[in-house]
Amino acid sequence: MEDDDHLPTLTVAQTVRFALSLKTPKKRIPGVSPKEFQEQVLDMLLSMLNIKHTANTIVGNAFMRGVSGGERKRVSIAEMFCSGAALCSWDNSTRGLDASTALDYAKSLRLLTDIMQQTTFVSLYQAGEGIYQQFDKVLVLNEGHVVYFGPATEARQYMVGLGYKDLPRQTSADYLTGCTDTNERQFADGKDAESVPSTPERMEEAYRQSDIYRRMALEKDEYRQLMSADEKHREEFRQAVHDQKHAGVRRKSPYTVPFISQVWAITKRQTILKFQDKFGVYTGYGTSIVIALIVGSVYFRLPESASGAFTRGGLLFLGLLFNALTSFSELPGQMMGRPILYRQVGYRFYRPAAFAVAAVAADVPFNASNIFIFSIVLYFMGGLYSSAGAFFMFYLFVFTTFMVMAGFFRSLGVATKDYNVAARLASVLISLMVTYTGYMIPVFAMKRWLFWIFYLNPLSYGYEAIFANEFSRINLTCDSAYIIPRNIPTAGITGFPDTVGPNQLCGLTSAQAGQAVISGTQYMNAAFEYYKSHIWRNYGILLGFFVFFMVLQMLFIELLQQGQQHFSIVVFKKEDKELKKLNERLSERKEAFRAGKLDQDLSGLKMKPQPFTWEHLNYTVPVKGGQKQLLNDVFGYVKPGTLTALMGASGAGKTTLLDVLADRKSIGVVSGDILMNGKRIDRDFQRGCGYAEQLDVHEWTATVREALRFSAYLRQPQEVPVSEKNDYVEDIIELLELQDLADGMIGFPGFGLSVEARKRVTIGVELAAKPELLLFLDEPTSGLDGQSAYNIVRFLRKLTAAGQKILCTIHQPNALLFQSFDRLLLLQRGGECVYFGDIGQDSNVLIDYLERNGAKVPHDANPAEFMLEAIGAGSRRRIGGDWGEKWRNSPEFGDVKEEIRKLKEEALANPEEQTGKRREYATSFLFQFKTVLERTNSALWRNADYQWTRLFAHIAIAMVVGLTFLRLDDSLQSLQYRVFAVFFATILPALVLAQIEPQYIMSRMTFNREASSKMYSSTIFAITQMLAEMPYSVGCAVAFFLLLYYMVGFPTESSRAGYFFAMILITEVYAVTLGQALAALSPSIIVAALFNPFLLVLFSVFCGVTAPYANLPYFWRSWMYWLDPFTWLVKGLVTTGLHGVPVVCKSTEFLLFPPPSGQTCGQYANGFATAVGGYINNPNATDECQYCQYSVGDSFFASLNMDFSQRGESAGVFIAFLVFNVIVLLVAARFLKWSKR
């Protein structure tokens, strides 16, 4: 393993204790309980690895502060130790550690190997001699050929014996790898490539003929014979393994504890994770409570009357749907942490199925309590039937439906490769589930080719149950507004009774003439075909769904194991003529360059010969309970043409010092003087500096060449010709040995370039800028092999020869690499300087200082490693006392302060000539706009999954709606369905927000890195992010409009269709700008996602569809209705889709009532029907009147406070909301950086 990936919110002790709980043997020392055994082993492990002091510190990760990198690696060792594995492999696992910590790490591996009698494989780059000496054997590969495998102590002499020149100052590891590099190796005197095995094949042949090979083969054969002959030991081993297993574990099973114990251990861990994620828990409860309050206030105290029947159903629908769709959050949660899951499964801690069961079990208490609080608020504010039995029945079904849907989304998550694939499937399935719940369309009215979806839909069973639970207990009285016919004084219609008489009807499905009170049972039977007798049947079906999805999830996670394999695949851009020509040139020069026969021409570099100094530098940050000082009175300088190394223990403050000096800190207090040429740094300082940061943050869709060119275009002056910038980029590609990857997509961990290649790109991006003031590099050689690291430092030396000033942190330098630096600034923990000065030839100046102060340097020691041990950087005690105090009292410190004084005086005596106005950015606004927009367009185009998921969701929803409401006729029911079809347009922003926000925030991470170098402004970033989305917004709008509009059968006049399309397009753009504005206001993807349910519920509830304008409480109707963007969207679409549409009631849709004796239906009710926009179908009848509620679509939407003549106003106000989003986006992007450093 290479990456130290752990659950970041668990403490070190919790992480290791969990591993131990699953590997505690059944057979232990008598009298020692499992818990005592675990605590004893935990204490022993943490003490042995020297991380006992971190036991109660969270592990953390790249985004969450926890233990240091070296300590996190030792947590990985402890976890692997718990597995009891006989064979352990570690890939480049000292990357990023200082030399002393890396040595401690190697010693920890040595210790565990000896104690546990394990076999340990380790691949390392730039291994120091101390690390190398920890190993028994070494394996050297050359292009896949084994050129040496044998004792580590004999490897160097073996290569010398072949005819390679011994280089005593090289570490053994670097010497061995150097012998396989045609450009690095040197032959002994009188030897050459012909007389010495130098090709991989000849080196392998020579090894196979060597005495060491024969010894290794003999050793292997003897071991095999011993193992095959020693049956007793094998049987003892089998019995020992068997004795470790607990009851219930099969003899051949690789697990130590039974399945139920695995589930229990993981459940406890997941519960701890929940409790420690206080932000997630609080926001979950907070979101539920606030939404319940909002929805409850909209449907406040619904009357048990005809007017409350539809809205009561709507309240029940929202109560079920909100919680069911909240379970969608299980989908990304199921996919995160896959590397940890499969590593622990690989250690045979537990079965994947045990994790699936435990994850559900751990969530039950939190989800049950969350939904309980939500249900109490919603249920009693909404005025649903007030009894304990009714409430708990409602709660039972809402919670069970949630659990079923959570199981559904978890199953989808474990069955799919990545989030985009799962989101595409989810968008279709959610649309089908919502449409076919039975609320919008009763099952008997569904199209025959789609009604089966109702019976496969868990939501439909939950909704029928809570609907029947409510309506079977209530009676609905007829409101005066529902009496047909009735008095309408404003229209001169009078003379009808004010209560339902024998010649009147309540306008509610199932009501009979003269019936003033309709039972809820009668209503639901007729309107929805729902039955009270189905309640417990439905609960059984829901339990069946839950079990089905649980079993499905367990099978999928066991059999598919999606995301387990990691293939680092590099995708290359297709070559055009220009790229082909450039790549041919790179290929021709590659070998010559690596051999040192070719060099870059740096004569064109223009460096400012200005000294950079800092004095009394202190830095404090706010922490819980006060302030913490990270830098403590640091002095130093960098002269033109010098290369300064910044070293220290892990966590000593090296990166912090670089950040402060580069003016990159955004939090905390910096005090002291940072001067360039004797003056305080100004607004163009960051632009004139390069800073290759420790984390490799890039636009992942860009190729290596594109990333370097982007930096050159925007950071070199605009006056420099593009051709010259391009030529310089080619030189950088050669220098960093990226010739073969020049057109490879950078990607991200697990896809694209390797860790080492991405580190080179990070350096290249800064070098391409030609920084004229100063170059900062944070660990430029970490993760690189010895030769690559040497090439980097060799180029840095060339830059200093051209006048560049360079300050860089460096870890684990070998003696040769260390010699390449002019000066050293050494920090100890606490950010305290313990040495700043020259290194000297063969490190003689540094060695002299150390020895004068009590630290005798062994003659064969690497000074870079020894000095870290001396100041206590590793686990051992420091040598010679307090080095910080020694430095402050040393004559060298006095010399540093005097040199800084001289440098400042000389700089002020020779002031720089001002050449024109100082600019914050190297290029103009228009040039930035063109260059950044070009890259953003390219990034979105290459991120095919992102755009395809968005388009697919639009097409899927439009198809679902189109097929569901296919070619609607002129019936009364179809009128209502047209409104529901329109309402689906309000779902589009939900889809867009879910994709836009992560995309924007991920892009902002790249922008923050680039903006710190003054490449381009926040305004350019925000505008280009928005404009790049527009073509895709148009495409999605066209697809959605064509499918939905013409399949449903809306009016075909061009003016109506054009307006409808325009509103859909505005909706798309509105959703994009809203998502980006919310993302700009949010510090993280998680926080941005918290806005979505609030806004979408607010917009959906107040727009006048689920709760009509007349039914909204006055408080909300007076302001929130008008401030809801969806109000204007729905108004525009509904009036356009329904205006002038004739309504012809079917025979089953007429409301029937008898006229008084001696009157025809027309005489009795025609005036009323005309006044309310309906019509009497049989005006001459005398026995039974057929009344249709609407004669034209306009009559229907007039009751919803909509008017066709106000379409223009609706579009204008909606556009105004869009403009508001753009303003918020630009302002937030300008003032909210969300980059805390």
UniProtKB/TrEMBL annotation:
The chain crosses the membrane at residues 279-302, 314-332, 353-382, 388-409, 421-441, 539-560, 951-968, 974-994, 1015-1048, 1060-1081, 1093-1116, 1211-1232. Signal peptide: none annotated. Residues 612-854 form the ABC transporter domain. Keywords: ATP-binding, Membrane, Nucleotide-binding, Transmembrane, Transmembrane helix, Transport. InterPro entries: AAA+_ATPase, ABC2_TM, ABC_transporter-like_ATP-bd, ABCG_dom, ABCG_PDR_2, P-loop_NTPase, PDR_CDR_ABC. It is a multi-pass membrane protein. It is found in: Membrane. SMART domains: AAA. The keyword Transmembrane applies. The keyword Lipid biosynthesis does not apply. One of its GO terms (molecular function) is ATP hydrolysis activity. Belongs to the ABC transporter superfamily. ABCG family. PDR (TC 3.A.1.205) subfamily. This is ABC transporter domain-containing protein. It comes from Saitozyma podzolica.
